[in-house]
Amino acid sequence: MGTLPAETTNARDSAGDALAKDQANEQLDDLSPKNKTGKCKKNLKGKILGWTRKIRPKTKPNSVSSPQALTFEEYLKLRRISEAGQQLISLEEKLYRYADGSENQEEALKEEEELKLAYETFSQDLWTTIAAGVTLSGEELRRLASAVRSIEQEEERDKKCLEEKERNGRIPQWRPRECRKELDTVLQKAVEQRMEDILEVMGAEKLSSIKQDIFKMGKRVKEDLLSVVMNVKSCYPEGYDICNVYAKLYHIAFSSQLKKITEFGLGQEDCTYVLGWVHNYYQNDILKHRDLEKEIDGKSLGSLLPEDVIKQLESQYVSSRESEIKQWLSKAVGNEVTKWMEGEIPEQMDGFYHSEIAIDVIQSIVGAVKEAKEVLDEEFGNMMHVVMWALQELLERYKKTLEDFIKDKEKHKNCAAVIKANMFNCKQFRDYIEKTNDPFEAEDKEKCLSVLSGLEDTGYRYLADLMHLPLKELLKRLHFEVIAEYSKRIMKKKIKLKSEQQQTAMAEKICDDNRKIQELFTCYESKEDWLHHVLPKVAEVIKLQDLSMIVLETATLVRDYPDISEKHLSALLHIKANLPSKDVKSIKKVLQMKKEDLNSCHSAKSFFALVPVR
Description:
Helix content: 55-70%
Oligomer: single chain
Structural class: mainly alpha
Strand content: under 5%
Number of strands: 2
Strand order of the largest sheet: 1-2
Distance between the termini: 59 Å
């Protein structure tokens, strides 16, 4: 793809324009001025036609050699459109001047008609070249640049004619020609034609007919806009902003075709493909292409489809995907359950029983979320709800299935192995839900985790019976682990709260969660009542603002849990971002209490030693 060497080309073209103008002037200067009776010499028409077809200016003997002038037709044949146009303009100026004094009006009209015919020939060549712009490259771009210069020449001639009209009311009947306006129309029709006449392209053979049409149009838009930026741009003056002109025309044409496709209703796969082009491929692969982004104002183009059409397609997508996701997840669990029922022993990995349920389900969810990010906008948040609701529903059925399986454990010799494998599944589910970066709502995640806790409890109960361990021992361990994990999350140093209101709100949330945990374990008759007081004491330190009160409450915390370290206390005080460093040092001095003072509290418990912090 080449561009014009500017200086050489411009010099040659300027010389050609001047030569064309001199040639027309020379031939028409032979026309004698009005005679004494006011008449012009005859055969003007013959001179005009001779000029446009075959007459060349004579070269005087012994004169310095100069470029041989060409006829109008020869210029067109050589695709030197601007020179041909300049000849017509120069002839028009002379003709209009002499025809004004002619007494033979009929002859003058015929002469004008001949010039109009020449202009028609010229215009056809001009606009054919302009329309073919995006398909030209290399040396062909000289022809396009010449055509663009002709438009500039015509615009300048229009301006002069209009100025003359203001002075004396006279103007040629074919002026103004308004080539700039015509340019917009020609480019629009050319782009529309390019978007309609697209042959088969590589890479679309296996797509549906609708996908093929969209793929071909998208490929045409990208390739043509690249041609505009790489080639066509160099042929137009900067003021034309030709890259954005073409971008807008292709955007409108693509949008129009895409809208027609959606009017007849789309299947799910085609709907997804259309949304992918609207939200992803068009924006990222075309408008943000490294060669196009710097030349085209993509933001000003807007969306490929109207807002109401996009909303309809997104709603269709979410509704259809909801049922599909439920089927995927149900199938993932169903396949494993069938194996349990048939007595199959789960595989072992590194000495532990293993199940594929969590892996299959999580992969399905990750895939659904990834696709939703690419094809949805307004409905994306709703889709995230749908995914988590489907997961919650699956976990509830999963829990019921496991409970029923355990009830008939006498019939299933593989029961213990199956339950152990499913406890591993629970861990994978919990890790994904808690650690995922996918934008799920916290409330939706909490609901899934709540169901998952019940599922885990089902497994723990069975394993406790299996190992002949007292349930209270298992509950004791679980209760401790829950409070320890919660405390660990508080002290991760990921939270910094600057205002009293924020700290109070966090303290209240901790206390509220503690009440829920207490109710849960009380329901299962946990006897570890001392664990109910850990989180409220931590929350109190976060809530208090007065230094003396914080020191007092910290002393209480150290007294009741003497294994709390400076790292724990630092992590806790890290949350209170409005606390001056000197106050932090004062509070930490509580840790320097004498060991005998701490041991004087017989109710002290070991807790924080099992809560790791960085």
